[in-house]
């Protein structure tokens, strides 16, 4: 595909999903949560404690990330454990962090 025509070839759904993904990655709190979940799963309580955030804030951000299928969860009793759900986005995030660290 010719790069010049790439934009014209994107359908509305693709454009929306890409913009929502970048919206998700534009928020410092969501970046911190995704970075934490990059290596292992954590409960909402663990995320809140490790990042010094309220459970309400963490839950709100996780809902947003879950809608985009960037994170997933499993239930163990009454506890939800969240983990990454999209290696492509995590790779993109790690590249952005690495890029920022070199400046």
UniProtKB/TrEMBL annotation:
Q: Which domain of life is it from?
A: Bacteria
A Pfam family that this protein carries is HTH_5
Q: Does the keyword Cytoplasm apply?
A: no
GO MF terms held by the record: DNA binding; DNA-binding transcription factor activity
InterPro entries per the UniProt record, alphabetical? ArsR-like_HTH (IPR011991), HTH_ArsR_DNA-bd_dom (IPR001845), Metal_resp_trans_reg (IPR051011), WH-like_DNA-bd_sf (IPR036388), WH_DNA-bd_sf (IPR036390)
Q: Does the keyword Transcription apply?
A: yes
Q: Where is the HTH arsR-type domain?
A: 10-103
Annotated keywords:
DNA-binding, Transcription, Transcription regulation
**What NCBIfam families does the record point to?**
HTH_metalloreg
Q: What's the protein called, per UniProt?
A: Transcriptional regulator
């Amino acid at each position: 595909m010719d790069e010049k025509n790439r934009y014209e070839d994107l359908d509305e759904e693709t454009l929306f999903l890409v913009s929502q993904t970048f919206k998700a990655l534009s928020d410092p709190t969501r970046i911190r949560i995704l970075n934490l979940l990059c290596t292992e799963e954590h409960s909402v309580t663990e995320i809140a404690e490790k990042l010094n955030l309220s459970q309400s804030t963490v839950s709100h951000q996780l809902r947003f990330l879950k809608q985009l299928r960037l994170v997933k969860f499993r239930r163990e009793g009454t506890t939800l454990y969240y983990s990454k759900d999209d290696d492509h986005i995590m790779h993109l995030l790690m590249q952005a962090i690495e890029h920022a660290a070199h400046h």
